[in-house]
Amino acid sequence: MAHDFEPLKARVRDISYTPGRDALRHISPLLLQAQDLTATVLVRLTALDNSAYTSIAGSRAGLELMASVVSSSSLAGTDLAHVVLANPYEGAQFAGYPADDEAVRTVRHAEVITQMNGHLDDAVHQLDLCAIGCRYVATGITENLASEREHESAAVRQTTGPTVTAAQYDALSALAGGGLLYESATRGLGATRVATEDGTRVSIVTYRALHERGLVTRDTTTSLMSGGQKITVPEQGRQALARPRPNAAPTTTTLAGPLKAAVAQGARR
Predict the structure, then answer these.
(1) pTM, whole model, 2 decimals?
(2) Which among 7, 140, 207, 218 could disulfide-bond with 62, CB atoms 3.0 to 4.6 Å apart, if both were Cys?
């Protein structure tokens, strides 16, 4: 609607008229157009207020701004109406009063021209506010809708991320806080184990299932026997954790010694 208000603003700003019948002829269509635009903006505001847009975060500000456009458009119409009111008319006087001669008419016109121009300037200002307001509303609606779509996409990603079992979910949750893959010195060569920072025991079978799906990674630049290999939960695994935990009995147990004990054990090896 900014494209409707701006041409009207230009016409009001650039109007050329002579007080009297000529002014009424020029001002009347401008006043009628301002009133039409006010009605149109009010219809648009009502439509927005009755739409699903009101459920989107930030929509209240858009509705309030649209209401301010209604107000400014109405005020522009009032300013133009004041021009009509201030305009000097040339009707006949009551009986017994002398008719205006040219000198009297010139004085009357000079007295009201400043007042009429002041109302026209006010109308231009209000119409400018209308155009600006419409652009802000359009931008706000676009940004609000984009934000809502991103929010919905994030929700979809959260609900459609990788699925895991309850045991795998618990293992991922523990490993997200810090994990280590190491080779046990007490169970013979090749007895690979997993330790977590919080002491939760994760079976090697569960770890391998997560690793094969890319839900966990390990630092292969270090040795399993000396210090172990740090386990990390990448984005794929964090998406799985973003889903609700599966309703199943947990299959992990608490390890007697935490991650530091496992590191020390690997070092003794």
Answers:
(1) 0.56
(2) 140
